[in-house]
Amino acid sequence: MKVIIPVAGVGQRLKPHTDSRPKPLLEVGGRTILDHVLKPLDGLSVDEVIFVIGHLGGQIRSYVTENYSFKASFVEQDRLLGLGYAVNMGLEQAAPGPVLIVLGDTIVDCDLAAFVAAGEFVLGVHEVTDPQRFGIVEMSGGLVKAVEEKPEKPKTNLALIGLYYCSNSDVLKEELKRLVQSGHTTFGEIQLTDALASMISRGVRFATHSVPNWYDCGKKETLLATNRFILEKLDQPERPAKFTVHPPVFVDPSATVENSTVGPSVSIGAGAKVVGCTVSNATIGAGAVLENAVIKDSLVGPKAIVRNFEGVLNIGENSEIRGG
């Protein structure tokens, strides 16, 4: 089985952090988003992982080759024309056979072995309260009757969550190629949902697999929520003598934390230094320095410096904030 992971996006809603590194390499819960995306693949027999890269894609290539031993390929996406366009480029690299598509900025709490065993063609779904924001699935007789991208008047609240399986990739490849060649777009993009709709109209029988938890890392608020969820699942270390902990937290062993109160929901990266601070609901990047600061609901990028500050921060790599 091949796995396609689109990771070409610019990450506009997570600037300034994505100015210096691609969104999948931002950290939550002590690891990169990409690490969390790849972890569920451990239970599968995967022949190759195909990354569709773009913005700062060289960093993705380097990170994967330095940290993983599976066979990996990298496809440069020439234009940002939507998920369907990205998947089409990945399929052009893939040999015929089964394919699993996993979004590179969405962490799923899902047994992927059970997911791919749910049928020959499977869509990951979850009931949502705001279906206008998603691709929506209509069911009939236990199978997918129709799918529609961000409908103005949704017929259901069953949303596509960015997890797709096709036992025969050629069928999907044909539909996406047709969309790309025709130039057909929805909301200005080549939509994977439109290709799925065409497959259904041709008689392809899609099953669904309910994903109990899935976590979007697309903006500051959801990134912090995802960080909190991951930390809650981690084993918590013994309380250290040099600072006060309010679990859940993650503190990299190489970080220095002294005379501080940390947590709840705080991740502190490798080599960071936190002295005389109170930090809650925040991610502190590798090599960052915080001194005499009180921060909450914040993203602090790698190697950033924060001194004598109180409040909410959203600062990128190598930035510096000094209070009065």
Structural domain tally: 2
CATH class bucket of the largest domain: Alpha Beta
The profile of the biggest β sheet is: 8 strands, parallel
Helix content bin: 10-25%
Which parts are unreliable, with pLDDT below 50 for 5 consecutive residues or more? Answer: none
CATH-defined fold name of the largest domain: Spore Coat Polysaccharide Biosynthesis Protein SpsA, Chain A
* Radius of gyration over all CA atoms, rounded: 21 Å
Shape estimate? elongated
**Proper CATH architecture of the largest domain:** Alpha-Beta Complex
The number of helical runs is: 7
Distance between the termini: 57 Å
The chain-level mean pLDDT equals 94
Q: Structural class, judged by helices and strands?
A: alpha/beta
Strand content: 25-35%
Please report the total strand number as a whole number.
Answer: 26
Say which CATH homologous superfamily of the largest domain is assigned: Spore Coat Polysaccharide Biosynthesis Protein SpsA, Chain A
Topology:
Elements: E1 2-7, E2 27-28, E3 31-32, H1 33-38, E4 48-53, H2 57-67, E5 72-76, H3 83-93, E6 99-102, E7 106-109, H4 112-116, E8 121-127, E9 135-140, E10 143-149, E11 158-166, H5 169-182, H6 192-201, E12 207-210, E13 213-216, H7 220-233, E14 244-245, E15 249-251, E16 256-258, E17 261-262, E18 266-268, E19 273-275, E20 278-284, E21 289-291, E22 294-300, E23 305-307, E24 310-311, E25 314-315, E26 320-322
Helix pairs in contact: 3-5, 3-6, 5-6
Describe the fold and architecture.
With 324 residues, this protein is an alpha/beta fold. It has two domains: 2-221, Spore Coat Polysaccharide Biosynthesis Protein SpsA, Chain A (Alpha-Beta Complex), CATH 3.90.550; 237-322, UDP N-Acetylglucosamine Acyltransferase, domain 1 (3 Solenoid). The protein contains seven helices and 26 strands. Strands 14, 15, 17, 18, 20, 22, 24 and 25 form an eight-stranded parallel beta sheet that branches. A seven-stranded mixed beta sheet has the order 5-4-1-6-11-8-12, with helices on both faces. A five-stranded parallel beta sheet has the order 16-19-21-23-26, with no helix packed on it. A hairpin with a 2-residue loop joins strand 2 (27-28) and strand 3. Helix 3 packs across helix 5 (169-182) and helix 5 (169-182) packs across helix 6. The longest helix has 14 residues, at 169-182. The protein is elongated and about 65 Å long. The relative contact order is 0.13. The mean pLDDT is 94.
